[in-house]
Design goal:
Length: 310
């Protein structure tokens, strides 16, 4: 398998692993295993691994740390594959490097989370960095199938602006959702503090943003159909709407059923899928063909040779 064909599945594996890290992180929090390994970078003062005395909570927290290591290895493999591509593509090298550097940053923030006793703001930052890494991994995966020519917009400028506004609201929904999480139960440990904000008030703001997001997404779908946009763009907008409706249903049910852990975990996965769906819409509205070959240098005119006069 060539380096070019190897990088694409590696980039996809990086995307899936980053989403998996969010889900396992949710499992850590929902099972109150946030301090299953009570210190960092060791699991205990004397061991880097969990011990039998730490029970299932230690296993869950240590398993999440192991996934972070696996994630780092995948990111490193992406970077090496990008470096070995012929011809080497600068955009792929930079994207893979950004993902690679984000993994240790994620580990450091995770360590600060443990050392601060699961401070809800640090926990939220830990989640938001995962969203950034998902975006970078997605960009790397999509760029492997594109050329390096200048991007070309496939829809009118107002629709591109509407799509960017939709993405901005999607990001806001995720950020406010993090604040909602920090104000409610499932802190990751029985003694972990909450952010002190009113859960009902923050949840209402989150719900309002969700309604706005769905409305913008539906408007974008209708607008794309009206201008006869390319089929992949219309399909991407339709998929985003379906993900949003499913995520909204889970959110409302979990709220009125007092946040059962399985629904909260599903909602965390849904947040990742909404974000990926949003990115998919943005990428479907443009294309990047292969870069045009550089023009061959013009041949220099031949220098006339003087003919000697007899």
């Amino acid at each position: 398998m060539s380096n070019r064909t190897l990088l694409r599945p590696l980039a996809f594996a990086s995307l899936i692993a980053n989403i998996g890290l969010v889900v396992t992180g949710a499992a850590v929090r929902l099972t109150r295993s946030g301090l299953g390994c009570p210190t960092w970078p060791r699991c205990t003062d004397a061991s880097y691994t969990t011990t039998p005395e730490m029970g299932v909570n230690g296993v869950i927290e240590f398993g999440n740390r192991l996934l972070g290591i696996a994630l780092g290895l995948i990111a490193l493999a992406c970077f090496v594959a990008a470096l070995l591509e012929k011809p080497r593509r600068r955009s792929l090298v930079l994207l893979s490097l950004a993902v690679c550097l984000g993994i240790p940053g994620q580990g450091v923030i995770g360590g600060i989370t443990v050392l601060t006793g699961l401070n809800p703001w640090v926990v939220g930052l830990h989640f938001l960095l995962s969203m950034a890494l998902i975006a970078l991994s997605y960009a790397l995966w999509r760029r492997t199938a594109e050329g390096d020519g200048p991007p070309r917009r496939l829809v009118p400028a107002p629709l591109a602006t509407l799509a960017r506004l939709t993405a901005l609201v999607s990001a806001a929904v995720i950020v406010v959702g993090v604040i909602v999480t920090g104000s409610g139960p499932h802190a990751g440990d029985a003694d972990a503090k909450r952010n002190g904000l009113d859960p009902q008030l923050i949840a209402q703001a989150h719900a309002d943003l969700v309604f706005l997001l769905v409305g913008l997404s539906v408007a974008l779908w209708f607008a794309l159909r009206a201008v006869e946009a390319p089929a992949p763009a219309i399909r991407a907008a339709g998929i985003l709407i379906m993900i949003e409706l499913g995520q909204g249903l889970i959110g409302f049910v979990q709220y009125f059923t007092h946040l059962p852990v399985l629904l909260v975990a599903a909602h965390m996965l849904g947040a990742c899928l909404v974000w990926v769906g949003t990115l998919g819409v943005l990428w479907s509205l443009r294309e990047r063909p292969a870069a045009a070959p550089a023009p061959a240098p013009a041949a220099e005119p031949a220098t006339p040779v003087a003919t000697p006069v007899a």
